[in-house]
Amino acid sequence: MKTALVLGAGGFIGGHLVKRLKREGFWVRGVDLKFHEHAETEADDFVIADLRQQDAVHRMIDRNFDEVYQLAADMGGAGYIFTGEHDADIMHNSATINLNVADIAHKRNIKKVFYSSSACMYPAYNQEDPENPNCKEESAYPAAPDSEYGWEKLFSERLFLAYNRNYGMQNRVARFHNIFGPEGTWEGGKEKAPAAVCRKIAMAKSGDAIELWGDGKQTRSFLYVDECVEGVLRLTRCPHFEGPVNIGSDEMVTINQLVDMVADIAGKKIEKNHIPGPTGVRGRNSENSLIQEKLGWAPSQTLREGLEKTYEWIEQQVRRNSR
């Protein structure tokens, strides 16, 4: 039986990845600081451990796993990433985890680790025009991420790829673009835009106004979690391509359009109250020509399809909480 190690398995994407690996017949160890908050884990062995501690990583990487997925990080939505209040924790916690994982995987003779980077590492100067953002993989340099979160992601990309060059590893690096779906954080300040919009609309009555940070004209693309997992597995198992590569949708929408789409799914008329707040770059959209070329695949599900499933799940959580 093949074995897999999922670091960050108590998180949103990690939880979905564990389910997919189990369907494929893997024995899976999941590791996180916490249990999954929104679903029972399907991991065969789920361990609470602090991956900032080197001895904890030694204990978790105790064999030559067939596949290792490094998703563990200190992260959240715009309200967590862009205020500047959490910069030191974000950089220290995530970088320490990645330094530990890369080095101990190498010393255990594990040849390949998948590392989840982020589109937040792209230069802010290429994302000022909401209509024409440039997020081609080759546009990463000269580097100028708009947040310390993005700088740490860029550093860790270089870390895992340096282990490829110096130690003959075959690590894989992907840049995620706004992954969303059921069983993710939907309240509390670390939720991302689709979940926040779904929650606000689920709690609103038809005719109500919801608050949005900024003018709502900033553009983004959002990728449903099942397609993210598919891209992760395809890249990890690709014998000839290390990345970095975008894993995201190329269906770009404004935040105002996102709100209108969720409101239509909910069958509610929703007004928008634009207020000051952290918004990140003006435009961001996944550019998918490289993943199509290298993997012969790119995400294809429409945003609306994913939002329908996500809104249904979040509406259930809102109703449960109100009871």
TrEMBL record:
The keyword NAD applies. Keywords: NAD. Gene3D superfamilies: NAD(P)-binding Rossmann-like Domain, UDP-galactose 4-epimerase, domain 1. This is NAD-dependent epimerase/dehydratase family protein. Coiled coil: none annotated. It comes from Novosphingobium ovatum. Residues 4-248 form the NAD-dependent epimerase/dehydratase domain. Pfam families: Epimerase (PF01370). InterPro entries: Epimerase_deHydtase, NAD(P)-bd_dom_sf. It comes from the Bacteria.
